[in-house]
Amino acid sequence: MITQCKHPIVKIVSRDEDAEFVECQNCGEIFDSTEFSDIAIEEQEEEEGKD
Ligand SMILES: [Zn+2]
Questions:
Q1: CB burial class (10 A; 0-12, 13-18, 19+) of residue 10?
Q2: pLDDT tens track for 2-25
Q3: What separation in Å is there between the alpha carbon of 37 and the centre of ligand 1?
Q4: What distance in angstroms lies between residue 27's CA and the mean position of ligand 1's atoms?
Q5: Domains contained in the chain, number
Q6: Is 45 a member of any domain?
C-alpha cells in the first residue's frame, strides 16, 4: 500500500511567467503550484463527501 503525501508544506523553488514550481518539504516532490491547488481542492471535496 502506498501512502500518498498530502504535501502539507511546500516551498517555491522556481518561478516562470505563468508557472510556479514548488517543492514539498515532506516528500521532496517538485510540481507545478497550479497542480498542487487542484490536488488540495480534490482532497477537500473528498473529505466533505466522507463526512
Ligand atoms: Zn509531499
A1: middle
A2: 678 888 888 999 988 888 899 999
A3: 13
A4: 4
A5: 1
A6: yes
- Is 2 among the domain residues? no
Answer yes or no: is 33 within a domain.
yes
How many angstroms does the Cα of residue 8 sit away from the middle of ligand 1?
7
Per residue in 32-46, pLDDT (tens digit) is: 888 776 655 455 555
Amino acid at 4: Q
Q: Are 33 and 46 spatial neighbours (Cβ–Cβ below 8 Å)?
A: no
Q: Which domain covers residue 46, as residue numbers?
A: 10-50
Separation of CA 2 and ligand 1 centre (Å) = 13
Compute the distance from residue 49 Cα to the ligand 1 centre, in Å. 23
Rounded to two decimals, the pTM is: 0.60
